[in-house]
């Protein structure tokens, strides 16, 4: 990521070319790192340029202003997170296994990408209107994905409790619970992704009703059905 | 709330006096209304003064700058919400009834105080750093309260799944789920507080495990224990 651009500060049109997608990825990787380490306001485009090894004019040409670059970071990180979750969920599995895989993939992603989670969540949530809107849009995308997964689980099992437009609010609640746990995790970094994922399973799969009955959720020993 | 201050624009020291607490409440009522209707930036202190019927100099003297006034609104509304929840939860009830009452009180409060919920949540979440910090602080207070309630429920039932420092992250997850559902509710205003509260019970008390088995949570007919 600190590799210098061979073209130097002001690349001539005939400089050795990388595909645009590759350059954009380098810029976004650098920007996520700089924004999360410095915070949005103190971060400078000079620093992004330095870390990316790509000239400032090229950054502006590809991804626009600092504000636009930050918005692009949020979009990119949201997409990566959703790909990580979507990649492990298999509609042929039973709902419990799908939920466990999705939840574990979420916390694994957050754990491996503390930088990007911070960009996504803390920074975006504290920098005011345009980024809060990006964050809300990312949340809507996540809710839509989870809602589709719950709908599929419901239609496969043929059950009524999930049906009739009930999945979207439940997906919103699950998303909010996941975000809140990931936020809590930042203050308790010694916890493993698996331990965090089990907490969300305890809430969302088991429910407090089972917990007060002494039944907790375990990945290895899945609880007997009532 | 639109009652005019008898002292007019610049009240002399000997103007007919209201206790400070009453004036502050009038100012905060007016500010919550103006901020939520206009948004933080477009809202003016002139308008707050007009709606409160209290002169601008007195507002500045009592509650400080526009920024400080907005922060005071968030604190006051958080306190009101927590009093509403704390007021219905009775430690002598069983955990299920406590959770149901608390969850219903939350959605009843949000439903009756859409203005203040907006101030609390949307505006604070989109206005940048100082208010995001107030919001985070309010969230911490809510998590601490719910955590204490869950701890009490756990010690009363003598169960292990809630014990050993497990209640705080579960309280955080429940808070996040509640916030996300309240946010979803803003886009679906026809839903009743009770319908929203049942959704949160379905997630947090029953869990998806019960829902895919066709067991949903009902306030009247509480589900048989497994």
TrEMBL record, chains A, B:
<keyword id="KW-0238">DNA-binding</keyword>
<dbReference type="InterPro" id="IPR009057">
    <property type="entry name" value="Homeodomain-like_sf"/>
</dbReference>
<dbReference type="InterPro" id="IPR036271">
    <property type="entry name" value="Tet_transcr_reg_TetR-rel_C_sf"/>
</dbReference>
<dbReference type="InterPro" id="IPR001647">
    <property type="entry name" value="HTH_TetR"/>
</dbReference>
<protein>
    <submittedName>
        <fullName>TetR/AcrR family transcriptional regulator</fullName>
    </submittedName>
</protein>
<feature type="domain" description="HTH tetR-type">
    <location>
        <begin position="21"/>
        <end position="81"/>
    </location>
</feature>
<feature type="DNA-binding region" description="H-T-H motif">
    <location>
        <begin position="44"/>
        <end position="63"/>
    </location>
</feature>
<dbReference type="InterPro" id="IPR050109">
    <property type="entry name" value="HTH-type_TetR-like_transc_reg"/>
</dbReference>
<dbReference type="Pfam" id="PF00440">
    <property type="entry name" value="TetR_N"/>
</dbReference>
<keyword id="KW-0805">Transcription regulation</keyword>
<keyword id="KW-0804">Transcription</keyword>
<dbReference type="Pfam" id="PF21943">
    <property type="entry name" value="TetR_C_46"/>
</dbReference>
<dbReference type="InterPro" id="IPR054129">
    <property type="entry name" value="DesT_TetR_C"/>
</dbReference>
């Amino acid at each position: 990521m600190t590799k210098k651009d061979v073209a130097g500060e002001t690349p001539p049109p005939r400089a050795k070319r990388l595909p645009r997608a590759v350059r954009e990825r380098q810029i976004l990787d650098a920007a996520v790192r700089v924004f999360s380490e410095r915070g949005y306001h103190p971060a400078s485009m000079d620093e992004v340029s330095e870390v990316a090894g790509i000239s400032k004019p090229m950054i502006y040409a590809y991804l626009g202003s600092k504000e636009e670059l930050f918005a692009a970071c949020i979009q990119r990180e949201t997409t990566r997170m959703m790909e990580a979750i979507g990649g492990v969920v298999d509609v042929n599995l039973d709902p419990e296994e799908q939920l466990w895989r999705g939840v574990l993939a979420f916390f694994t992603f957050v754990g491996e990408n503390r930088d990007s989670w911070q960009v996504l969540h803390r920074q975006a949530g504290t920098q005011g209107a345009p980024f809060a809107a990006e964050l809300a849009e990312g949340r809507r995308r996540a809710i839509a994905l989870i809602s589709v997964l719950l709908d599929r689980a419901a239609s496969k099992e043929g059950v009524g409790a999930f049906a009739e437009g009930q999945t979207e609010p439940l997906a919103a609640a699950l998303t909010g619970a996941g975000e809140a746990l990931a936020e809590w995790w930042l203050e308790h970094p010694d916890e493993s992704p698996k331990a965090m994922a089990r907490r969300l399973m305890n809430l969302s799969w088991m429910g407090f009703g089972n917990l007060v009955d002494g039944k907790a959720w375990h990945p290895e020993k899945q609880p007997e059905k009532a």
